[in-house]
Specification:
This protein is an alpha+beta fold. It contains 9 helices and 18 strands. The termini are far apart. The relative contact order is 0.11.
């Protein structure tokens, strides 16, 4: 048997995670959701343009393969996997890059759970999807965490952990630069909102932050936020667009795969605010500002920062996530039009569609977004 094949076979055996009894590995996991594996090459999750995949009938796609593929695609690096993983260059450890154990995980860091620490017959490798230091919870990005024909997604583990170690990439020249496709490059203004949404289990990132959000994904995120704020029970079996119609967020027959226009986004936010006890109908429009760095209420509209690589005619994924988090904080607010804006509405009715409420809460300085270019009516 060739040495390379033997090493790969050995790692695969150590990493095997075909869970036949309980996929949550009592004590090891806090929570997770499942996606039904429907075909070979099934994509259960994605992070920075790298997919976590499963085969329905074909050969097992092991956990270590995902970690290896991620570092190859995102950093152009080869990782040597053992209890102390390292970066390989020309078959030897790199002198410029190394993996260092860390107590403060960040997105893309490597998680290693040894067989001994986990009380199982195999090791498990995964990646940090997000980490919330306030709650001490890591959301995991992984492959080959399966049970009864289902793929585990967004599994959460407590941190610090008795089951896992975490390794972060270091470089002699500073912070290693990730080589992300343009569609997956997140704008700096969206970082806080996206990380919080990931930690809250709200964020849905399908094809990248700069791509247009679909109606189904935006509805699903808003519905999760509404449920979190109001205690409303959601039917997990109901598709998001149908649920949105039943909740009064959108009209029936919404195209689930269609990109969300700014008009539709405004209407969805109005409905969400109404359900949260606010005055949603006073939210009259959204405005994209190329110079903004957070979401805030302007004199004429709710101002949203631009997504530089996105289609300006529709709402991007990062904009949808930020708006979802914003409405979670301010959905219960009552938005009153100022006398000046009311006079403008009477004198020039055609401008009324671009008028937004003028009440700004005391916490408005902590908003997520910023930038101004075009008005998008919500009427």
């Amino acid at each position: 048997m060739p040495m390379r094949f033997f090493k790969r076979f050995l790692v695969a055996m150590l990493c095997m995670a075909v869970l036949c009894s309980t996929a949550t590995a009592a004590g090891e996991s806090l929570a997770l959701t499942y996606e039904k594996i429907t075909q070979d090459g099934f994509v259960a999750d994605s992070l920075n343009g790298v997919d976590a995949m499963y085969n329905l009938y074909g050969p097992t796609l092991y956990c270590v393969d995902l970690v290896s593929r991620y570092y190859e695609q995102v950093y152009g690096m080869e990782i040597q996997f053992h209890a102390n993983p390292y970066v390989k260059v020309d078959g030897a450890a790199s002198s410029e890059y190394w993996l260092e154990e860390t107590e403060v995980p960040k997105t893309g860091d490597i998680l290693y759970g040894s067989a001994g620490a986990r009380g199982r017959g195999y090791n498990h490798w995964a990646l940090v999807k997000s980490y919330d230091p306030a709650t001490g919870v890591i959301t995991v990005f992984e492959q080959n965490w399966r049970w009864n024909g289902n793929a585990g997604v967004d599994r959460q583990i407590a941190w610090p952990s008795r089951y896992y170690e975490c390794f972060t990439l270091k470089s002699t020249s500073g912070v290693p630069e990730a080589m992300l496709p343009a569609a997956h490059q997140r704008s700096a203004w969206a970082d806080e909102a996206v990380l919080q949404a990931q930690n809250d289990g709200v964020a849905i990132v399908a094809d990248g932050y700069q791509t247009s959000v679909t109606a189904a994904d935006f509805c699903a995120m808003l519905e999760k936020q509404i449920a979190a704020q109001t205690g409303l029970a959601l039917d997990a079996e109901q598709d998001p667009c149908t649920a949105a119609a039943d909740m009064g967020l959108a009209a029936a027959g919404l195209n689930a795969d269609a990109p969300v226009s700014w008009t539709l986004a405004t209407n969805l936010l109005r409905g969400a605010a109404d359900l949260m006890g606010g005055d949603g109908q006073s939210l009259l429009g959204l405005e994209v500002d190329e110079d903004a760095d957070q979401i805030f209420l302007g004199a004429n509209a709710l101002v949203v920062p631009a997504s530089p690589n996105a289609d300006s005619g529709s709402v991007s994924v990062e904009q949808a996530i930020a708006l979802t988090m914003w409405i979670g904080v301010h959905g219960g607010d009552s938005f009153a039009v100022t006398p000046a804006l009311a006079r403008m509405a009477v004198e020039a009715p055609q401008q009324q569609t671009n008028v937004l409420a003028n009440v700004i809460s005391a916490s408005m300085d902590n908003m997520f977004v910023t930038r101004t270019a075009d008005y998008y009516t919500g009427r």
